[in-house]
Design a protein that fits this description.
With 193 residues, the chain is mainly α. The chain starts with 7 loop residues before the first helix and ends with a helix. Helix content is 70%, strand content 0%.
């Protein structure tokens, strides 16, 4: 059942239930979000990228691909998000995903207390498309960044903040995401160029 809660805790709880019941794959993201919500569909893969799951070899490439596919569809205004079946069905380590969610849940509850509807003009329709475009750029830069340890966490963190701003309708978080995006683009440009 799609999540209705505009909080990190609500999203993590819904995803954990889905992982326990339906499988640890990108298809679980679509089931949790109802195939429509840009914020959660961008947040969860980026969150996994900067979580302990990011230590799994090759996972950054798969997660970045999901982010690109979702973000491009947001930019063109698709009413429903589509992912190819090989991505929807690709299984991730269920026990590691559940463990990561359980470790992060207390922190999510703490962060949720500080998030709210602020500077909402930074979370509207046109800003959603701009953020999606920025997420595409950051996710594409993750591919060459994977050759330098820890570097993919920087664009991943920027995508987490940008998508979290969309998820919680908090423009202040989106603003921080824009600042971190500029830093990430500068650092990645330096190392990758």
């Amino acid at each position: 059942m799609p999540v209705q809660d505009e909080s990190i805790s609500g999203l993590l709880d819904a995803w954990e239930r889905e992982v326990r019941n339906g499988g640890a794959n990108a298809g679980s993201l679509l089931r949790v979000t109802g195939s429509r919500a840009a914020g959660p569909l961008l947040f969860l893969p980026a969150f996994a990228m900067v979580s302990p799951l990011g230590a799994i070899p090759g996972i950054h490439i798969g997660l970045s691909t999901v982010i690109v596919l979702v973000a491009v569809q947001v930019i063109i205004g698709s009413s429903e998000i589509w992912l190819p079946s090989f991505l929807r069905k690709r299984e991730l380590p269920r026990d590691k995903m559940i463990s990561a969610v359980e470790r992060l849940r207390p922190h999510a509850k703490t962060v949720d207390r500080f998030l709210g509807r602020r500077l909402t003009f930074l979370t509207g329709n046109s800003m959603t498309r701009f953020v999606a475009g920025l997420c595409v750029l950051l996710a594409v830069l993750v591919y060459p960044a994977t050759f330098i340890p820890v570097l993919p966490a920087l664009p991943g963190g920027a995508i987490v903040l940008l998508s979290l701003g969309l998820l919680t309708r908090d423009g202040v978080v989106t603003l921080f995401g824009l600042v971190l995006s500029a830093v990430a683009l500068g650092v990645l440009g330096y190392f990758v160029a």
